[in-house]
Amino acid sequence: MFVFGLIVILISINFVISIISTIHLLSVPEYVSNSHLVIYEFEATKSELKEAEITTSSFIITGDESYLVPFTNSVNNIKAHLNRVTQSAEININIKPKVIELSSKIDDMIEDLNDGIDTRRDEDFTAAQEYISSDDYKLLSTDITNKITSLQDDERNLNETFESHIKEAKNRAIRTFIISAGSMAIMLIIFYFQFIEREQKKRTEKAKREIESRFQAIIEHSSDVIMLVDKDGRILYVGPSITNHLGYSVEESYGLEMFDLIHKNERYKATRLFKEMLENPGDLFPFLYRIIHKDGSYSWMEGIAANLINNLNLKAIVINLRDVSERIQFEEKIKQSTSEIEDLYNNSPCGYYSLNSEGLFLRVNDTFLKWTGYSREELVNKMKSIEIMSHDHLHLFYDNFASFMTRGFINNLEFDFIRKDGSKLSVLLNSTAIRNAKGEFVMTRSTVVDNTDRKKAEIALRENEERFRMITENMQDMVCQLLDDGTISYISPSVHDLLGYEPQELLNTNVYLLIHPDDLERIRNEVAKKLEKGVSETFLEYRICKKDGSYTWFETNIHPIRNNYREVINIQTSSRDITIKKNIELELKDSMNELKRFSYEVSANLSEPLSSLNDTANNLYLKCKDKGDEFSYKELSKIISTSKRMQDTITKLLEYSMIKGDEKNFKTISMHEFINSLTHIATANEMDTSFKIVTPSVLPSILADKDLIEKLLLNLLDNSIKNKSDQDLVITIEHKDLKDEWVFTFSDNGSGFEMKHADKIFQEFQRIDNDINNQGSGLGLAICKKIVEQHGGNIGVVAEPGKGATFYFSIKKPV
User: Given this model, what pLDDT does residue 191 score?
Assistant: First the structure.
């Protein structure tokens, strides 16, 4: 009985121990599920912290407020993740103090980021950068990351402990059931295990329903794409957010292979990662791939995947996807911007460097290194600026450094650096003090310009000025330097020979007081007009008063001297006496007038007998025609034709001689109106008007001599009439608008000619006898050439026998 009682007691004790172990075993699934959820939430928190840091950096660098929208979203998501972790800590109270501590540190980090943003809004870029690049901030960020990783490791270790407890509890139950032998024990054990199984199933299903409900809520309300896939990569479940991100409905997504959604260039990498994931259940695998939309487009998506196929509640691989296309674009822009700024900094034509409060080099650009011959490793954090400064200029550094620290800047300080090879580098320094938000000195931002060339230029300028003074004082022309109002600031000694004044007599007097009153207004207006149009130089002729009161003719070359803003600060002039030239011109003009009078007299004297001869021949021609005297009729016809040709030649010769290049009466002419009246002008000149003129709807207005342009067009028209073919004559006039000139074409459908005669036809008394009816004087096209050249243009022709000719001529546009 005692043994039986002892056995019963032992069985009872083992039974009680078994019950306690089983109760503990029943709580394990809830801990395991909760642990996986905590690991996931911590990973998501790390991702959001990274996103918040990137968007804050983007805003500080660019100042673009649009970067703050994803920052705010990340902060809200971090708080949501931490709230869910805090709720889970009610199940596993061991991690609750650590979660509270972590939340506090994350709040500090977010507060630092907000301070950086507020500082950047206050336009303090350097101080804002310091908030997110300081050692304290980096330590805080690293500490947060390490604590999250530590908590994740604790949860994984806890999972392993739970699994060990399960095995141990099972072994203990088995040993208890073996010890409790006997039929009664067996029956009790059977009943017990049935009871345990039912209770465990109920609790497991309840925990599963709670987890599924919580997981379902997370998925359906998450902005991320969360999906479950099997071991072959087939989608078993996906959240509704897939529609917003990829365009697929939830129903369309079921059964799709995950690899079909990945860009073909990244599928191989994805399959290798998937294989590694299958081999390491429970581990987290981050990735970044391009994912295909339903419409065929792509988005960059960052993901976290975990193999939970062995998890009885999930039996799948969990994947969390987030669209980071904008972030990738931001990062690329930041990289590009940073690269461009760095390139601009290093390859600037100026030297840049920064010094700390002790004068030690903190940063230098490539330009400064190239100028000095030092490497970055030799200067940065190794040498002070005074160590490479010329000893002769050290006093400048000491004299100015105290005021620089007080005022915060220094401008246009000249001194010499000593290059590595011992040579001198003359520089011009501008520097600004950079301070943090507390007003403490951080570093200098210094700019130096290579002053060597300017120094050489100053020496060369002094030498050139001396050379120029020697030249001007020994030349015959009178050289002046005037202020913009005409006041003489310098005049060469040659003024004595030309005008009788000593140079000092005219200094600070106005040059316009010496100009003849009849020329004064013209000269003032012309000088003002040339300076306003930005003409580099111009020549003027005028009369100027000598010291004895007489006037002499001057030709002056005016050259304005301008500053960097194109403003006239001085006027350089060079003048010479052209009185002899003017007298020759007057004599030449008198000779030309005499020649003009003589030409008119010769024309009149030749035209009168030719007209009489023509009248007599016409009378005889009519009488012989009436009498039927065919021989006399033909001979008289030749005489009449010859006399008309001689009369036309005299007229053309007189017209040719009257075109002189020194007389210009240019006015604005509408070529459209002028050519439309060409038929009436031809009728008035007794020309054959059986022709048609074709012109475009618009022709330009030109600056030209109207009478000469009329002669030009009439001579071209006369040439086309004299060389017309059997078909009706059609004249086509067109134009082209070039940069400095108008080019007009005058085309006909006449008989044309071979191009070997093209140069010949513009010479005086040269004709192409294509037709016996062509009775030209040989001067019409020569007149055309002379008129076009007087207008600063050129004339030419393109022709083909039987297909007509196209004359082209250019007229300069007004400046």
Answer: 66
How far apart, in Å, do the first and last CA atoms of the chain sit? 137
pLDDT beneath 50: ranges in the chain = 1, 3-4, 770-774
Q: What share of the chain is helix, strand, coil (3-state, %, to 5)?
A: 55, 20, 20
What's residue 773's pLDDT?
46
Q: DSSP letters along 571-605, please? A: EEEEEEE-HHHHHHHHHHHHHHHHHHHHHHHHHHH
pLDDT given for residue 4 in this prediction: 47
Q: Of the candidates 253, 238, 211, which has an alpha carbon nearest to the alpha carbon of residue 317?
A: 238
Residue 493, phi-psi category: left (phi > 0), alpha (psi -120 to 50), beta (remainder): alpha
Distant-in-sequence, close-in-space partners of 663: CB < 8 Å, separation ≥ 6? none
HSE, CB side, 13 Å, CA atoms: give it for residue 22. Answer: 22
C-alpha dihedral, 103 to 106 to 111 to 114, nearest 10°: -130
Q: Contact 140/148 with Cβ under 8 angstroms? A: no
Question: What does 724-787 look like in DSSP terms, one character per residue?
Answer: --SSPEEEEEEEEE-SSEEEEEEEE-S----GGGTTGGGSTT----SSTT----S-HHHHHHHH
- pLDDT tens digits, one per residue of 540-563: 899 999 999 999 999 998 888 887
Contacts of 790 (CB under 8 A, 6+ apart): 659, 661, 664, 705, 708
CA angle (388 as vertex; 382, 390 as ends), nearest 5? 160
Cβ atoms of 579 and 562 within 8 Å: the answer is no
Q: Which two tokens stand for residue 35?
A: 């642990």
96-130 burial, b if ≥16 CB within 10 A, otherwise e?
eeebeebbeebeebbebbebbbebbeeebeebbbb
Nearest residue to 132 via CA among 122, 121, 120, 143 = 120
Q: What is the pLDDT of residue 772?
A: 42
What is the rounded average pLDDT for all residues in the chain? 79
Closest CA to 44 of 221, 255, 305, 277: 305
